[in-house]
Design brief:
This protein is an all-alpha fold and 265 residues long. The chain is 77% helix and 0% strand. The chain has one domain (53-258): Rhopdopsin 7-helix transmembrane proteins (Up-down Bundle), CATH 1.20.1070.
């Protein structure tokens, strides 16, 4: 059963890789750094695109408080082998806030590396976490998978910086959209968890759409550009996942308390 359930995810991954190889290199478009909203605020250049990264930091800190705070023992026990990968995801959210804000202060290819790197690591962490929750295996195997995906994430950004080919980076962003729902379905994950992840992935898809309509959305007179909206929608996706993680920890703590177990220190 374990082997058969791995066939379809592997096939999807192989097909995506084959499609990208057949397509050929995907270069970054020439005017990528020309964002629609150039307004400054309190001396901050491109203020909306810079400051809209704050929700990533808030989501990351909120999650880290649950994973490393006073109920850390309960949290790690509940998340099991997936806990280290979720920790990578949460740290990557914090790094995304810093890296993306730094990039949007003065957009160029050099700064863009520090924007894309934490995003790639967040995708890797989330993939590794859901895989650990959906597949039987040891803690060592789960940690090895998480570290391996992090290496691939770093390599995908390094490959783009070296060759101007976005294919590995785009692949890493596409895989969570396809594999996470499939893994959770195959593992019969709780419906509430699947719905939350579905909502989060839907928000991320909308975020990518808003990014492509940067100037058009600003032209609607909403006082917000497509790229700023992308940040807010992507941060909402992260916050939905973080909120669900904290709910899982609270639920387990309540059950343990009801059975007479002491509160985790």
């Amino acid at each position: 059963m374990q082997r058969s359930s791995a066939v379809l995810p592997t096939l999807i991954t192989v097909m995506l890789i084959a499609a990208m190889l057949a397509h050929g290199p995907i270069a970054q478009w020439q005017d990528y750094h020309r964002f629609a909203d150039h307004r400054s605020w309190l001396g901050v250049a491109n203020a909306a695109d810079v400051l809209s990264n704050l929700p990533f930091a808030l989501a990351g800190l909120w999650g880290l408080h649950g994973l490393l705070g006073k109920d850390a023992e309960t949290a790690w026990g509940n998340l099991g082998h997936a806990a280290p990968a979720y920790l990578i995801f949460l740290c990557a959210l914090l790094a995304t806030a810093v890296g993306s804000a730094w990039y949007h202060c003065a957009p160029d290819d050099q700064r863009l590396v520090w924007d894309r790197l934490p995003i790639a690591l967040a995708c890797a962490g989330l993939l590794a976490a859901v895989r650990a929750e959906s597949r039987a295996g040891s803690a060592f195997t789960a940690l090895l998978n998480a570290l391996g995906l992090c290496v691939l994430a770093i390599a995908s950004v390094a490959w783009w910086a070296y060759s101007d080919d976005l294919r590995p980076y785009l692949l890493l962003q596409a895989l969570p959209l396809l594999l996470i729902p499939l893994w959770q379905y195959q593992a019969s994950a709780p419906l509430a968890r699947r719905l939350v992840f579905g909502e989060a992935l839907g928000c991320y898809v909308l975020a990518k759409g808003a990014e492509l309509a940067d100037a058009q959305i600003l032209a609607l007179g909403l006082r917000v550009s497509g790229h700023t909206l992308k940040h807010l929608l992507a941060a909402l996706a992260a916050a939905l996942i973080v909120a669900h993680l904290r709910t899982r920890v609270r639920q387990r703590h309540t059950r343990l308390s009801g059975l007479g177990y002491p509160r985790a220190a």
